[in-house]
Structure formats: C-alpha cells, structure tokens
Amino acid sequence: MAELLQFFQTTGFAHFHWSYLAMIIVGLFFMYLGITKNFEPLLLIPIGFGMVLGNMPGTFGIYHEGSVLNLIYQGVRTGLYPPLIFLGIGAMTDFSTLIANPKLILLGAAAQFGIFATFLGSILLGFTVAEAGSIGIIGGADGPTSIYLSSQLAPHLVGPIAIAAYSYMALVPVIQPPIMHLLTTPKERVIRMKAPRPVSKRERILFPFAGFLVTVTIAPEASILLGMLFLGNILKESGVTERLANTARHALIDSVTILLGLAVGASTRADVFLRIESLQIFALGAFSFCIATFAGVLFAKLLNVILKEKLNPLIGAAGVSAVPNSARVVHQTGQKYDKKNYLIMHAMAPNVAGVIGSAVAAGVILGILGG
Q1: Is pLDDT at 1 greater than 80 in this prediction?
Q2: Whole-angstrom distance between the N-terminal and C-terminal Cα of the chain?
Q3: Of the candidates 278, 149, 274, 275, which has an alpha carbon nearest to the alpha carbon of residue 221?
Q4: CB 172, CB 329: distance < 8 Å
Q5: Which one, of 81, 164, 142, 209, lies nearest residue 365 by Cα?
C-alpha cells in the first residue's frame, strides 16, 4: 500500500485542480479553431498544445528552473524569438505596393492609434506605466512585437499579453468585417483602385536600406526588430542570397514559430495565469484591436476628402500588422460586394506599413519607458 500510495503521489491525479482542467480546455479550443476553422493554425495549434502541456498536473513546466520548457521559454523572456520572426517576415514581404503608393503608409500609421488608446485605458485600470505600454502594443496586432516589448518592460505579463495578441491576430476574420461594414457605405465598398505602377528592382533593393535608416533614427530602441525585418527583405530582393532568404522564410521562421508558440502556450499555467489582470489584458486587447481597425478605416475615408483618386476605405483595416491575414480579409470582404474588385495588392501596402509602424511604436514606448 505504501508503494501504491507513493506511485499515486507521482501521478497527475495527486496534483489535480479544476483550474488546470479549465486551461487545458482552453488549449484544446485553440487547437480546434486552428484545425477545423483554419484560424491561423500555424499559431494556434502550437499555442494550444503548449497550453495543454504546460497545465498537465505534476509536470515540470516553464516556471521550474532547469526544465526543458524553462530553457525553451528563455527565448521569449530574453526577447530572442521576435527578431528571428522579423527576419523571416522580411524575407517573405514584398514592399512593392507600398513603394508604388507611399501615401498608403499613412493608413498603417493611423492604425497604431489603437496602441496609444489602449495605453491610456490600461493606466485607468490601474496598471503601471510600463505595464500599460506593454499591453497597449497589442493594438498593433503584432505578436512578436508584443512579446519583445513586454519582455523588456513587464516580463511577468508576457504570457497573457502574448496569448491576447496572437488570439486576436487569429480572430481577424471574425473581428474586422463587422467594423468595416459599420463604417463604410455600399458605394465606398465597391470603389475600384487603379493598379499600382510597376516597381523596379533598384527601388526594391534601395527601400529596405532607406526604411532602416529612417525608422531606426526615429526609434533606436527598435533597431533589432527593424534591422532584422529589413535584413530579411534585403536577402530577398538582392537576388544573390536566395539560399539565405529561403532559409529565413521557411526553415528558420517555421522552427522559431513552433518554439515560440509552444513556450507562450505553456506559460499560461493556471496558478500563474488565472488572475484578474489576465482578463483585463484580454479585454484591453479586444478594445485595442477594434480601435486600430476603426482608426485605419476612418483615416482612409478622411484621405478621400482630399484625394482625387479615391481609396477603397476597406483597405484601412489592413493597417494593423497581422500580415497577410488582415489584407486577405479586406480582399475577401470587398469581393462580397464586387467579385471583380481585387483589393489584396492595395491592402498589402498598409498591412506591411503596419508591421513597420508597430515596431516603431514599440521602439518609441521602450525609449520613453525603458530608461
């Protein structure tokens, strides 16, 4: 009996608590959304499985010093994974539509209003200034940037902030279309924009150099994120480092995505994660994402007041940096009203501008609050 009792003490049953079960169910739900609904499966499946793994009773989880999960989590805690993700994103990104129509960068900038609105909301809810800065960046809909900033300013909130950011990135097809429909008229939704001009190879090569110099001058604290983003793009556009670009946009980013998703999911251990502040962060994340979408669409409508060639205001919703999901949702929404209207190429311009904008915003916040 003593041996049986000792065996029982080593099993998960002896350490069971309802809170672990609740988090396991949430993890399974994330995996369900990824597998059956195809909501960002590359993110939700590793995160969901990580939540299940991290909440198995009696296991050595992320918060157990020296465990394997703890070692994997160091890439999140130290901010190592986000720059590697940015390198892969840069190697996958085509900035041609932004180069061809540079005024669309304003839509990416407008969508960052959600960051600063949520910053103020977080302060009102009683979070510290550093915590509020970390929570606010969720409004950029940029998971890697959210993780990087929170790891520098509020490491104890990395888990809920990362989960909130990636959750809302995955729910772009659910959150954004109703807002786009609310803010636009039937006439605006069917505006057809002129095809962007062809962009030369020289322009595509020079853009990442110019972009790096300008953005890092504005936000030096974001130099590692912006540097890796533009380095990845140089590898792609130079035409002489295709092997490196191919590795960055496939093997590297896929490997880091698995580790990042697993670590973020496993960080949601019930005894650490289930707190009122986590629910507040989720609520603020939803608020920030909605505000960012509102700001992007409304600013596109404002530009139409002064522009001769009108913009389809739906593309303003792509100013959040959920690449390329948000641009794809804009295109699909537009085609519901005009099946021959192809918005994807136009929506990609504010979408990639949003990636740059959220990184710059993070750098500004880190520069002000990090000191």
Answers
A1: no
A2: 60
A3: 149
A4: yes
A5: 142
Tokens of 347: 């929506």
Q: Are 176 and 326 in contact (CB under 8 A)?
A: yes
Say which residue the tokens 């950029």 belong to: 140
**At residue 217, what is the residue type?**
T
- Sort 182 into a burial class: Cβ within 10 Å, 0-12 / 13-18 / 19+: exposed
CB 260 within 8 A of CB 159: no
Task: Give the length of the chain.
Answer: 371
The full set of domain ranges for the chain reads 57-249+287-369
Q: In this structure, are residues 346 and 315 in contact, taking their beta carbons and an 8 Å threshold?
A: yes
CA neighbor of 293 nearest in space, from 256, 263, 255, 321: 321
Give the DSSP H/E element, type plus range, for residue 224: helix 223-237
To which residue do tokens 């659910």 refer?
174
Which H or E run contains 204? Answer: helix 201-218
Confidence grade of residue 247 (pLDDT, cut at 50, 70, 90)? very high
- Site of tokens 């915003």: 361
pLDDT recorded at residue 344: 92
Rounded Cα–Cα distance for residues 239 and 233 (Å) = 11
Please tell me the pTM assigned to this model.
Answer: 0.90
Whole-angstrom Cα distance, residue 295 to residue 146?
A: 20
User: Given a cut of 70, is residue 8 above it in pLDDT?
Assistant: no
